[in-house]
Amino acid sequence: MWKKLFAIFSLFVSMSIQAQNVDGRIASLINQSNWFELEQALKETPANSISPFLRQLATAMTHHYFNRPDSACVVLSDLLGNHQQELGDHTMNMVILLSTNLARTGHYNDAAGLLQSLYDQLTALGTDSTLTVAYRDQAQQYRALAACGTLYRPLHKSDEYRIPMVIDDKGGQHSIEMDGSINGREGRFLFDTGAGGNLITPELAKKYGLRSLDADITVGGVGGLKQGDYAIADTLRIGGMAWVNVPFAVIDARTGHDEADKFSEKFQLPPVIGLPVMFCMQEIQLDFEHRELIIPTIQTSSPWGKSNLLRTDTEGLQLKTTIDTGHPVYLHFDTGSYYTYMQPAWYNRHQKEVNSAGVPDSLRMAGIGGVSITRTYRLPQMKFHIGNGTATIDSVKVNTGIDLHTGQMKSHDTEDGVLGLNALEKFSKVIINLKDMYMEAIPYAEKQ
Asked: What is the separation of C-alpha 170 from the centre of its chain, rounded to a whole number of angstroms?
């Protein structure tokens, strides 16, 4: 929904050589969307050595991506109120970011007002409606959510909670599930870090008695975009934790592909608990050794003092890690995917060695929006270093993004790959701290 910032260098031509070097580095990191390095640069660089506007801009971006929405709203409001001349054509980008962070903090009416005003102004200027309709629709969604009152209001007290972890096996592919209830009706739910929101099928929404909202939603999935509706669960309980007013996207999971839909009928998709509920938990410890999810009272401090997770523009999670070559890779963190695999962005940079070492194969994926079958190569082994742990995975597929039937490029993902559940299962425990935005993987103790 927003474009990259660029041409910031032209704003600082009158500064000293030293200031130009510092500002140039910060501006370059913003232009590259290198948020991990930008966060570190801000920590290491004296505040008075960066121009006030650029420091505010860099601070706004890092607070947005590293899940500090309250402070992001403050900084973004300052930029829009005091630095519109410097922002120039990028003022609209800041308006969109501010609306996103207002929604993240529960201020849906304010977020809706910003987007509606933006839509009205662009419409008055004669902007193509195909470029503006998304702002109007998002404003409508925010207004519908605002009418529900406070969302995700906790009914449980602050304490440690331990929830039994169910490792379900669907045709050789594992998933993490949890027992709980929606509106008092017991059920089993999917724990999915790859879901930017909570999802439920129309049949299950009716079964659990969700309240439908007057708001449409478009959800992106494996095969493209899918239209659905918003609905509210009056109560959601997971273990000893419970919340009031929990939104779900009601999406028909059928793909139109006979084989994929038969598989889905056999292994029906349960209600999906996505990132919004996990952000309420703040930290989740996946204890594979004892098969439980632990929600601690006090979040675990990062052992490195920095983040290796961020929130993406599609409301997902991106993990910065390294592979056996020592080079950093940026992976979509998705427990809803069993397999870990590499994406076209990584393949394009390593095409020669992959074509040489890999075995030609295909990657078949079915999910919301349809089915995708792409040409891949299968590498014999890859190592992923996550915190202090290393996951060695045999037979890792590398997606070329080329459709197996048409020969056309089908995938345009910018991330290097997907970190799935088969990597996490290599560890005794995985800590996902969504307050400080880091993930740590703890190996099994060596047997004597």
From this structure: 24
Gap between the terminal Cα atoms of the chain: 54
> Is the alpha carbon torsion for 131, 135, 138, 143 positive or negative?
negative
Cβ atoms within 10 Å of 227's Cβ, excluding its own = 10
> Rounded to two decimals, what is the model's pTM?
0.90
Tokens of 383: 């190592």
pLDDT tens digit sequence for 73-115: 999 999 999 999 999 988 999 999 999 999 999 999 999 999 9
CA 369 to CA 383: how far, in whole Å? 31
What DSSP assignment string belongs to 190-213?
A: EE-TT-SS-EE-HHHHHHTTPEEE
User: What does the pLDDT read at residue 305?
Assistant: 85
Dist. CA 113–CA 84, nearest whole Å? 19
pLDDT band for position 255 (50/70/90)? Answer: low
- Indicate the angle between helix axes 52-65 and 35-44, nearest 10 degrees: 130
What is the residue type of 95?
A: V
User: How many CB atoms within 10 Å of residue 47?
Assistant: 9
